[in-house]
Amino acid sequence: MDQYLPDKVNINGEQFRVYLTKDEIQERLKDMGNRISHEYKDKRPILIGVLNGAFVFLADLMRYISIPCEVDFLKLSSYGDEKVSSGNVTDLKNIDADIKDRHVILVEDIVDTGLSMNYLFKKLEQFEPASLSAATLLHKTEATQHDVELKYVGFKISNLFVLGYGLDYAQEGRNLAQIYILEE
Length: 184
Ligand code: IMP
Prior knowledge:
Radius of gyration: 16 Å
Helix content: 10-25%
Bound molecules: inosinic acid
CATH architecture: 3-Layer(aba) Sandwich
Number of strands: 10
Shape: globular
Structural class: alpha/beta
Strand content: 25-35%
CATH topology: Rossmann fold
Distance between the termini: 32 Å
CATH class: Alpha Beta
Order of helices and strands: EEHEHEEEHEEEE
């Protein structure tokens, strides 16, 4: 069975084109996984994925990590069906793992304004992890207004709406195997 890799995709009447190919993504993830394996050797990190968007990235990234590690998930309120953030963050699902004195890596699909990441850092710091860092596949550097420290960044991208590889537009497009960007 082939993966879902069209050159262009139309969702909700809007046209998207390929922005990052499958190979570019996998190559970058290999580097990120190697770095994490090296920097967290003997630390048994817990990767905490932010649902829904990060599940594809997390699943692939984990398989490039060659040291023992664990995984857990949390869920925040989403964009709804819009392309701009509502400016509010609320919890929809909390972590189950006990992260006190553990080395935690938060895994996000994309950092846009930085509101979610900023909120998550404050939230998880309360559980007193031994260390807390963040990995994001994409970072819209120009859009970020909140203070966020991103240790592992896949790609710095322009301030345009993207989808695919876990990221959705109105819940569609998560199964695309590469990243697409809105055509201007
Ligand atoms: P932030 O709180 O503004 O940084 O937004 C983070 C969240 O917004 C991400 O986890 C995504 O779920 C969503 N998001 C931001 N930009 C995009 C985009 O271009 N496409 C799809 N989702 C996005």
